[in-house]
Amino acid sequence: MGMTRSEHILARSSGKARVAPGDMVVGKADVIMGNDITTSLTVRILDANGITQFADPDKVFIVMSHFVPAKDIASAAMAKTCRDFARQYNIKHYFEAGQGGIEHALLPDEGYVVPGDLVLGADSHSCTYGGVNTFATGIGSTDLAAAWTTGELWLRVPETIKIVFNGVPKSPWVSGKDVVLFLISQLGDDGALYQAQEFHGEGTQHLSVEGRLTIANMAIEGGAKNSIFPCDDKTLAYEAGRAKRDFQGVEADADAAYAAVHEFDISNLEPQVAFPHLPSNCKSVSQAMQEKVAIDQVFIGSCTNAKLEDLRIAAKILDGHQLAKWTRGVVIPASHNIYMQALDEGLISIFAKAGFAVAEGTCGPCLGGYMGVIGAGERMLSTSNRNFKGRTGDVRGETYLASPAVAAASAITGFITDPGEVAPADTAAALTQFTE
Amino acid sequence: MAQPQPKVYRYGRDINTDLILPARYMMFNEPEDLAKHCMEDLDGDFLPTVRYGDVVVGEENFGSGSSREHAPMALKASGIVAVIASSFARIFFRNAINIGLPVLELPEAVADFRHGDPISLDIEEGIVKNTRSGNTFQAKPYPKEIMDIIRADGLMNLIKQQRIAQG
Lengths: 436, 167
Prior knowledge:
The structure holds 2 protein chains of 2 kinds.
Chain A lengths: L4 H10 L9 E5 L2 E5 H13 L11 E4 L9 H16 L4 E3 L7 H7 L8 E5 L12 E4 L2 H10 L1 E5 L3 E7 L9 H12 L8 E5 L1 H5 L2 H9 L8 E3 L4 H7 L20 E6 L6 E3 L7 E3 H6 L6 E4 L7 H11 L9 E4 L4 H9 L2 H8 L2 E2 L20 E4 L15 E4 L2 H10 L5 H4 L2 H5 L7
Chain B lengths: L7 E3 L6 H4 L10 H5 L10 H4 L5 E4 L11 H8 L4 E4 L4 H10 L3 E3 L1 H6 L6 E4 L4 E4 L5 E3 L5 H8 L3 H11 L2
Parallel strand pairs in B: 1-2, 2-3, 3-4
Antiparallel strand pairs in B: 5-6, 6-7
C-alpha cells in the first residue's frame, strides 16, 4: 500500500520508510513558528521550566502580527516579552511589525517554507503552508516550547481525505476563497476533524498558488489537521526566486489509501458568502444579493485574503470608485513586502482614493484585535476566515465572509454585491486565480 | 458544612475558543487574569457560579478555532477540572492535555447530561457518573504517548524527565 502526500512527509521527517494513519510519530520540523500572542505564553512556559537551550535556533521563527504595533499597554508588554526573548537568544528569524507581516503570508511569500517541509506553527492557520506542498499544522504554546526545545514533536498520522475539484469555474469572479467556503459548506465545520485534506483535479491544477494558500488557510475551519496541494509546475514557478532552501516536493502514490474521496464539479460555482456565525453557513452571492444585506464596514485583510493577487483584484474593482456613503473600509496588506509591492503597483493609492483606511502587516480586526473591531448591531463584510459570534468585536455584531472581489464590489454599493454587477468581466478575466 | 457536589455546565456544539476566551484578553498570560473572562461571551452565569471541581460538557467540535492555549488555561484556572464532549477540535485537545486539563470524548455521557446536573468523576479510571440519572460512563483509555504526558503532569515535565534520563 502506498502513501499519501501527508504520509510521505511524516515518514521522511520521522526517519521511517513508511507510516500509516493512527501511527504516532516524532517528526523533526523544518520551521517552528510562533506569533506575538502564542510566543509570549511560550516564553513564560520556557522560563517556568528553566529551558535555555534550543535544538536549532535557526528553525525558530517569531513573527509579530496580532497585536502589533502595540494596541495598548498590555499588548506592548506582551510584545516586549517576545522581543526580549528574541534579543536574548539572537533569534535570526524574528520579524518586527513593519518588516515581516502576518506569518501565513510572510513565510510562503518569502520562501521560508518550501515544498516537502514539516512546519509546526503556534497559530491555528499554520495549515496555510500546505498550499505549497508542506505538511503544516497548528499547535499551542506548550507544544511550541517543546518543539523549540527538542526540534521535534509527536504527531498522530492523520487519515487523508482526497478532495477532487472537477472543472474550472466559468465565472471569472470565482477565487480560491469561494472554493473553500463552498467546500466547508459541503463538508461541515468539523467535516475533516483530525484528518488531512489532499487536493486533486482539474480545478486544483488550474488554481494559482495564492488561491491554493487561501484554501489551505481555511482547512482548520473544516476541522482538518492539515491540507496539502501538489508540487506541480505552478508551485515550481512560484518557488523560483522565492525558495530560500533546496526542496523536494512530495506526491501521493497511485495506491495510497484514503478515508474518503469527495468530488466536486466547480465549473458552475458562484462567488460565496458565509453568513453569521459559522464559515459553513454559505450562500451564493446571487442569493445573498436578494437579501439586501447592508454593510457597515468592509475589511480587506488577514492571512486568508490580503496577498498581492487579492489586493490586485480588489483594487481593479475599486479603481475610480468611492466607498458607499455609510460604509467604511479598512485594508491591511498581509505583509510588509506585499504592502511595498502594492505601493509600487499603485494599488494603495486606489484604496486610499476610494476612502479606505490603509494599514499594514497585522491581523487587525479579524480576531477582534484593533483597527476596525465592530460594535453592537454592526455588520462587517470581511475577507478573513472566521465569523464566530463576538470574534471581530461586540458579541452583538455580525461578520460575513467573502472574497476580495465581493468585498470590493460591496464597498462600492454598501450592500453585499456580486462583483459582476459593478465591474466589467474583462477586469476579472485579466486577474482570475484560475489560469492555464 | 458539606461542599456542594460538582456540577455540569452543558453547552451545544462548536463551542469555539473565541467563546471560551475572547481574543481581546490574549495580552494576558497569567491563568488568574484569563479566568476572569472565561466563557463571558457565551454564558453570563458561568463566572458567578463556577466552583472548583465543576465540569464543562459540550457536543461536537468542542474548542474549534484558534490555537490559543489561553482557552484551556482559562477553563482550568476558573475551577473546571475536566471537559467532556462528543468530539474535540484537535489543537484544543492537544493544548488541554499539555497543560493538564483532562478531556474526555464521551458522546453517550454528553447525551445524558443536562445543565446543572451533579457529576462525579474518576479521571485516573476515566469514569464519569451522572448523579441525577444514576448512569455511569467509561471513557476509552488514552494512547500510551498521551498517557505518558498526563502521568508526567504535562509535556514540558515529560521532556525534562526524558532529558534527565538521557543524561
